[in-house]
Amino acid sequence: MRISLILIFLTSVFCARAQNNIEDLDIAFGPMFSVSKRSVPTQFVGSDAESFYVVYSRGKTGTGRRYLHKFGFDLKLEQEARLSTRLGSIDTESEAVLMLDGKIFQIMHASYGNKRNFYVQPIEREGLKLGQEQLIGTFTSQGRGLGQSKTFINATRDSSYVSVIYTIPGKRKENEQFAVNIFNKKMEKVWSQQYEFPYENRLIDLQEFRVDGNGDLYALAKRNFENRRDRVDGLVNYDYLLFNLKREGGIDSLKINTEGKFLRDMKVEFTPEGDIVSAGFYSNLNASDAGGAFYMRLDGKTKEVVSSSFKEFELDFVLQNLTERKAKRVEKRIKQGRNRELPYYHIDELVAMPDGSVRMIGEQRLIYTTTMGYGVSTVTQTHYLYNDMVIVSINKDGEVEWAERIAKRQHTIDDRAAYSSYALMKRDNELAFMFNDNAQNLDYNGVGRVAPMAKNSSTVVMAARVGQFGDVRRAGLFRRGEAEIKIRPVFAHQLDEDELLLFGHRQLREQRFVIVKFK
């Protein structure tokens, strides 16, 4: 049983007015701790009864060497160990660290000229000692550098199966090849196979691989026709394909019927009944806007299409979170038959709900650069715009039950969006989003100006809880000044049904964890 948290609990949630208070939340601040080098967490590994384990990567943006850190549930740092090792004269590169059935494993690779080997390595929980590595796969590049290879490592939600998949680089006009290795929770190989898609490398873009509860593998890919352009002569120049990759080596494919629309950000999920769901946004105009939601459900046994639909977003949804003046301009444009679609929205994941419905979770994101001239010198900056989150609920018949946009405005420069985006908590039929915001938005009701994320000690970490029928409740959890840290939402991890772990820092080496507890 998890040991008690030795923490400071806030018995009430910060809010500007009483109606914003969510009384069934507690906030627990861990102690401030220091790391030996500039580094940030980049992957939550797992937890046992007394500790949790986190991968840290060196550097402000977390792109350097990787280390495994062990923390107690008093949120104090206990141990750390470097993950990369040497095999002979070659340094390995850590790909992922997984906790399966209470044991920790590292998956890594080592490159030798045009050859790459993949290994699995156990790690002891006590002392974080690295064990003996074991070879699990190898390939040789057939025409392009090893840097062109992509690796996909995923575990099923219950950790019953782990997939280690890597593409095999070839010439641009050769067919896409990749190797698959499926393991059980003991990291024992269940099956492996090598495949070749009947499409050229340059025209196929693998989006994601997913393993179902039976250890069977599915792949979602975007396929362009003849060239890489998404639009040719005003028409869609791509489609999406869903593949069932057979253990004996065959491939069954299903072409997703686009009906001449631009599908975007497609994702795959499995329902509690074992059916396969694929969903995404679509546009009637281009490959960057979102005009509605697409949904397709396949019977998990027969692989036959049970339901499929395209649903345009309602006008009320399009007008959410706009000032009255801007809403009137949009309504006028729509009456004139002009574009009513929403730009730059991306789907992050599909969440299968207990009642068989699916929630599409997304966010409006735009990254762009500007270059300004100052005499003989220039300054180039990268801008990160992370705005409203979107939730679309679709029932198992493919009907959109409701759609909501949670308002936020986050604009930062040259920080790789470290403090932008959101953390997601999943509880029964409820979803909770937590993000850095401005206290002026505590009472926001979907109409009027949205205040931009504050950038000082008055920044508020906001919680927006979305109920089964799309009702949204907002509350401020705590101010940045209270916590003495800046929260990095994208690292957050759900510990169990009731607790979410947040991470933040004051200076980069002075850090602390925060637990949000739902009562």
Any overview of this molecule?
This protein is mostly beta strands and 519 residues long. The chain contains three helices and 42 strands. A hairpin with a 2-residue loop joins strand 35 and strand 36. The model is unreliable at 1-21 (pLDDT under 50).
Task: Give structural attributes.
single chain; mainly beta; 7-stranded antiparallel beta sheet; 519 residues; globular; disordered N terminus; 5-stranded antiparallel beta sheet
How many helices does DSSP assign? Answer: 3
What is the radius of gyration?
Answer: 24 Å
Shape: globular
What's the total count of β strands? Answer: 42
Main beta-sheet strand count, sense and barrel state: 7 strands, antiparallel
Oligomer: single chain
Low-confidence stretches: 1-21
Q: Determine the structural class based on helices, strands and strand pairing.
A: mainly beta
Indicate the percent of residues in helices.
under 10%
Distance between the termini: 18 Å
Content of β-strand:
over 45%
Give the overall pLDDT as a whole number. 89
Task: Give a short overview.
The chain has 519 residues and is mainly beta.
